[in-house]
Amino acid sequence: MEIKWVRTFIIAATYENFRKTSEELYLTQPAITKHIKNLEDSLMVKLFERNGKTVTLTSAGHHFLPYAKEIVSAYENGLGNFEAWKQGYQRKLVIASAPQIASSLLPVILSRFIREHPNIEVIINIVKSYEIAECIRSGLADLGLSRIKPSHENVFCRKIHEDRVVLVAPPDSSGDEEQTLTKYRVMTNNHPEYWDNLIKEIKSHYPFVRTMNVGQLEITKRFIESGLGVSYLPYTMVKTELQTKRLREVISEKIVEPTSSTYTIKKVDTQEANAFLQVLYEEIHTID
Prior knowledge:
Elements: H1 3-15, H2 18-25, H3 29-43, E1 48-51, E2 54-57, H4 59-86, E3 91-97, H5 99-102, H6 106-116, E4 120-126, H7 129-137, E5 143-146, E6 156-169, H8 177-183, E7 186-188, H9 195-205, E8 211-213, H10 217-225, E9 231-234, H11 235-243, E10 248-250, E11 259-266, H12 271-284
Parallel strand pairs: 3-4, 3-5, 7-8
Antiparallel strand pairs: 1-2, 5-11, 6-9, 6-10, 6-11
Helix pairs in contact: 1-2, 1-3, 1-4, 2-3, 6-12
């Protein structure tokens, strides 16, 4: 039995259509048919009923499907563990991080952690903040770094940092808060936590302000540098650009600037996660 036959069977069982299976796997339909025939011969059982162009799982096919998924999962996990062993890793830590954190706080913390724990393989998955708790709950990650406090049960959440939010404008701009907000479009929705309330307050003071939805924080910063607008962003995420004068901070006058929080999320304690958190707690207060 070859693993590629089992993979083909799983996809074919999902679609019950060899044409769609061939498109999914970038194989010809004759190759799909051959894989299934070889698997059936190996198992000495019929997995599909064929009626013209229609195929349906037999009772044996239905019974074998969960075992097939276990076989492929064990194979892939085993290869992953073996590859980690070849690279000298002894343990693994999977972190689900919000993109805003991955592009600002995480590099410094991760650099120290890797230096102090070279035998731990680190996998970083970039996930939207509102999806991170589910990743932790379902076991897809060991540790989450989020900008939103989760509402999920059975996960543990801790606020580790609160960041002030500042109004940033193009580097060659001038003017106070009112002049800035009336001259430029305000780029919104680049952070999941504070925009609903903030935009209401902005419009209560400056009702004719124009907005532009830009969902990615890094794109927002590049747009501001190019003079396309302004935005309210967490200070740690624009600290470098402000220091190098690629962005300009506009002092707040009427708008009460919000804060942006960073949360850690986990389900169970592991040595790897706790080792990372120790580095995180020690480094987080040096970033402001």
